[in-house]
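Sample 3 of the quickstart, ligand NAP:
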Amino acid sequence: MAKIAFITGVTGQDGSFLAEFLLEKGYEVHGMVRRSSTDFHERIAHLEDTPGFHLHYGDLSDSLSLVKIIGQIRPDEIYNLAAQSHVQISFDVPEYTADVVATGVLRVLEAVRTCGLANSCRIYQASTSELFGKVEEIPQRETTPFHPYSPYAVAKQYGFWIVKEYREAYGMFCCSGILFNHESERRGETFVTRKITLAAARISQGKQEKLVLGNLSSLRDWGYAKDYVECMWLMLQNQVPEDFVIATGQQHSVREFCQKAFRYAGIELEFAGQGLEEKGIDIKTGNVRVEVSPQFYRPTDVVNLLGDPSKAREKLGWNPQKTPFQDLVRIMMEHDIQKVKGESRPLNIRGKRTGATT
Ligand code: NAP
Ligand code: F7E
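Result:
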């Protein structure tokens, strides 16, 4: 009998890679999708006719839909990946973020209990390095105290603790992966790495004038999303439910990401100036290609994330360096150089077609 997995957030970056990964392992995969006015799910469109892949309408804010789906499919494993996952946007929609990112986790756990699956169903919760926030230790590991620093992170803190509570109170197999930033060619276009790779590709093809960013000095431990979904699965195959930090153990700045991405597109950038006056200049032409705007600064920003993946390496046998930083940038740039070749409409200087602010 094939194992049955249920993925919330299947249309997202991680959900789409995880669905592919589990289908390859022979799982029957069920994903939850929200109704939207554009019913095209770009990241999973290629999977929709795959035998063993099924979609169900539902929402993390709607307990009844969760009970209905979970009761019907009776999964062996649940991967709770759905979230309002943009940190900056969580300052704009804090109440909605709390409802989905915090209470949503509780709804999944309670749906499992309601359906009588508390003893059989294993649950993965998508926790985050944002829990470390205004960091109290470098590098951050499983024992590092949390200091969440955005409405998103505060909501994720609830998710982390309610999972731990249900594990201890009801003996459920539920655990959190504390994942550091992971990126890919499927990353949402307003996260900083993808914003940079798309802009570098467009600028090199004369389709965008410049890229406007926020804090260039922010430091992140960036990995490749495809490698990270394997770890989610490994955590549910473990003997006991435990929480793990998942990271590469290497750190780079937003500025450095820009330089590497632009170099891939044939543009050598030199940064000059400080703070809001800092600029990324094309060494060959003298053109300013990167500028800073307060629009992309956050009321509170997390600026020094570096994970220690030792526990995952030792206990799960996971390789944190499978895709090194330069390969991640290359994968994203190769994809985006091809992607923007098809675009004709010029973009505004933020590389966007709308007036949205992220
Ligand atoms: P993503 O690309 O933003 O995908 C989020 C997914 O959640 C989408 O499928 C989205 O559906 C769905 N969703 C949002 N609100 C929902 C709701 N109310 N009900 C049901 N589904 C909803 O995020 P990701 O990068 O794949 O991240 C996956 C998870 O890991 C998230 O929980 C995120 O917070 C967490 N995380 C991510 C990272 C990272 O670096 N990527 C690191 C640590 C933790 P639509 O397509 O309909 O919008
Ligand atoms: O920002 C800085 C920004 O939005 C990274 C989510 O997946 O990872 C993600 O959250 C850094 C921040 O990701 C711009 O201030 C500068 O310091 O790419 P990001 P994030 O906030 O780290 C964690 C682990 C999650 O859990 C989240 O779900 O880059 N930055 N200039 C910028 N960021 C953006 N978005 N846009 C800028 O123009």
